[in-house]
């Protein structure tokens, strides 16, 4: 052909397609990234791909809370200063990191590894729900139930509500305290811009005024 | 420590830092990408990193135009239907791909592999300028100079102008035709929004009106 709008190299095409398969990375930026990597020293690129391979192949999951970890127990579950009678239930590893960043939580976590979603074909058995239930039943045996708490820190959509309710049905027999994240206007939010549902809920769930 | 805002895994931190070293990828999206890769099947991640390693370690450069290529000669230089007496001088591999996409050019290319930039410490010897000069001198020997042409398709900034002038001084003795990309208002551009320099140049370099 006289005009060549194919890739100049099959290796480049393969790399661009691989990079372009990442979420939020378009074909144009995938090409830019591939050509950037091509300009880097070989050892830098080897370190780049090596770090990703090691993460995928060697990372472990905490045997208690299923958080990613370098050992059998994660840094939080092995931390004697944390409150091990309070379990915060989250969907993902990233949620744990977000909550830790707030520096407001001193309990431990349980990572479900997803959320119940019939559309995506994710059922309870795909999540670490049974492990959570045994953790809670063990807690209820070892401590007065009223001293223990399970906090649902799940998304506010239907899937989140469904998952929380499904778990609630299984742990309520143990009599532990069960709570969920407070929902309402964000701090500094302007009433004009709040959506009706959020504004409505934050009126219903209004809190004691503490000056 | 009771609050844990470190990475939950050294492997994750290593991967996030590697991904975050890519241009235009912030720490937040690097974390999202690392956790995305962690959720993929092992063989997908191996294919992802393998494609990048192969690109960096196995890609070749065309012995004539220095374009990346799977063999000794790129698809354009080995194409008998292209006009090998017209050489378009570009800075990068990406520039060749952009020009090919226009389907307006039938000649061949020469990839400089950069641009003369004292600030970045890039001098003429870091580029494939001497290779270009020998190509042009060979052309001038084999064909009547007026049938041969060198087109500067370099950026319009000082570095681009400097590089073009530096090369021009060395190839003008061969008597080949030398041209540069037309500069002016973009097609469909509105005069109100054109910068003075561009508008001024497009008046000075006005073209014959062809209805």
How does the SSE layout of this entry go?
Two copies of one chain form a homodimer.
Chain A: H1 10-20, H2 27-39, H3 42-58, E1 60-61, E2 68-69, E3 83-90, H4 93-102, E4 107-111, H5 129-142, E5 149-152, H6 158-171, E6 177-180, H7 196-204
Parallel strand pairs in A: 3-4, 3-5, 5-6
Antiparallel strand pairs in A: 1-2
Please, could you describe this protein's structure?
2 copies of one chain form a homodimer. Chain A folds into 2 domains: 10-58, RecR Domain 1 (Helicase, Ruva Protein, domain 3); 71-208, Dna Topoisomerase Vi A Subunit, Chain: A, domain 2, CATH 3.40.1360. Chain A is built from 7 helices and 6 strands; from the N terminus they run αααβββαβαβαβα. Chain A has helices at residues 10-20, 27-39, 42-58, 93-102, 129-142, 158-171, 196-204, and strands at residues 60-61, 68-69, 83-90, 107-111, 149-152, 177-180. Chain A has a 4-stranded parallel sheet. In chain A, strands 1-2 form a two-stranded antiparallel ribbon. In chain A, a hairpin with a 6-residue loop joins strand 1 (60-61) and strand 2. In chain A, helix 1 (10-20) crosses helix 2. The termini of chain A are far apart. At the A-B interface, helix 1, helix 2, helix 3, strand 2 and helix 4 of A face helix 1, helix 2, helix 3, strand 2 and helix 4 of B.
């Amino acid at each position: 052909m006289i005009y060549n709008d194919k890739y100049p190299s099959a290796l480049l095409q393969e790399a661009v397609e691989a990079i372009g398969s990442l979420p939020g990375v378009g074909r144009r930026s995938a090409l830019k990234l591939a050509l950037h990597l091509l300009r880097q020293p070989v050892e830098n690129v080897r370190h780049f791909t090596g770090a990703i391979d090691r993460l995928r192949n060697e990372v472990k999951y905490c045997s208690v809370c299923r958080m990613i970890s370098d050992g059998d127990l994660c840094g939080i579950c092995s931390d004697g200063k944390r409150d091990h009678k309070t379990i915060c239930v989250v969907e993902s590893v990233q949620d744990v990191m977000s909550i830790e960043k707030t520096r407001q939580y001193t309990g431990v976590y349980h990572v479900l590894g997803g959320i119940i979603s019939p559309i995506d074909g994710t059922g309870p058995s795909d999540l670490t729900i049974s492990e959570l239930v045994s953790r809670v039943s063990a807690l209820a045996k070892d401590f007065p139930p009223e001293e223990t708490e399970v906090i649902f820190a799940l998304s506010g959509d239907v899937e989140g509500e469904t998952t929380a309710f499904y778990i609630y049905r299984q742990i309520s027999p143990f009599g532990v305290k069960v709570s969920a994240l407070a929902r309402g206007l964000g701090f500094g939010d302007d009433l004009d811009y709040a959506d009706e549902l959020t504004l409505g809920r934050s009126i219903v769930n209004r809190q004691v005024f503490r000056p």
